[in-house]
UDP-glucuronate decarboxylase
Amino acid sequence: MKRILVTGGAGFLGSHLCERLLKEGNEVICLDNYFTGTKKNIVHLLNEPYFELVRHDVTMPYFIEVDEIYNLACPASPVHYQFNPIKTIKTSVMGAINMLGLAKRVKARILQASTSEVYGDPEIHPQPESYWGNVNPIGPRSCYDEGKRCAETLFMDYHTQNAVDIKIVRIFNTYGPRMHPHDGRVVSNFIVQALKGEDLTIYGDGSQTRSFQYVTDLIDGMIRMMHTPRGFLGPVNIGNQNEFTIAELAANIIELTGSSSRIVYKKLPKDDPKMRQPDTSLARHELEGWECKVQLREGLQETISYFDSVLSKNEVFRNV
Ligand code: NAD
Ligand code: UDP
């Protein structure tokens, strides 16, 4: 049995990761400051004898003895990470330093949840890991993009200078149950709007593309990455290669919910990437047996059921 720390464990992805790691027979410590996460996401794990919940902020050092660390703590949607941009960059950078310091002291293996945002508004399509990106260092998305880029640098430097056993994954748009209903991301926005019979808000003309990965495929990839041989550091793209326009996503959601909602067009936010699609050759080669299994419509159906139950219970999401 391994003792594993998951920072950001009460968030959307973190809660699925905690669940899966417990199921695999590990002891899991879930650390979160509840900025965008919520106890509701992990309440079903609280009676598990090998699950522990810690309220803590990763910008402060944390002392514990663990074998592995998954560093996920960071707001991930533009609405949330732009709410307090200085805190966002502190979370990425100081959080990485604190968790790398911990990994160094206790000789734990540590995995960083990086992002496709390190590619910014990419000029190469699809994006391989070797692409350095096209990021505006002073724009509204910079606190997140540059924070995550700096965290990758820190991971590499702690590895080179202090032999810390690191892994980096670059996560592409991921969706599924336990996404925050008000996080402003396109999948949650459209589903909530469709279920409430409100207009679906397409930003721009809807021709921009994203590749949507279902959460279980991502968690599978992250765990496989953690188990790769010591010398393999990444970064590795983990995402679904099937690319859709935002207009296609809206049409699918309207059809699957049977909603009578209409589509309205709003201004495209500044620095909004026009295209995003991962090149996943490296992941398929290095993460033995990994591939995305869940098709968009199947994953959307699960996510729609989740939001349907959240909305019908009229649950209150207190954060932000
Ligand atoms: P999320 O907002 O649901 O989860 C982030 C969690 O981190 C929340 O529970 C939040 O309360 C916690 N947190 C934030 N700041 C913290 C701090 N200072 N100290 C402790 N905890 C803190 O978002 P998510 O979608 O689950 O994303 C998890 C990670 O994956 C993030 O690092 C994000 O950048 C990365 N990622 C996600 C996606 C995606 O599509 N969901 C894509 C790329 C990268
Ligand atoms: N988007 C949209 N309507 C919404 C929310 C988002 O058209 O209600 C667009 C957004 O402009 C972007 C895409 O959907 O082009 C994905 O946005 P999201 O915030 O989900 O993720 P990211 O831009 O970080 O990939």
Summary: The pocket of uridine-5'-diphosphate (ligand 2) is lined by residues 77-78, 173, 184-186, 189, 201-203, 208, 210, 246, 268-269, 272 (CB under 6 Å). The longest strand covers residues 109-115. The radius of gyration is 19 Å.
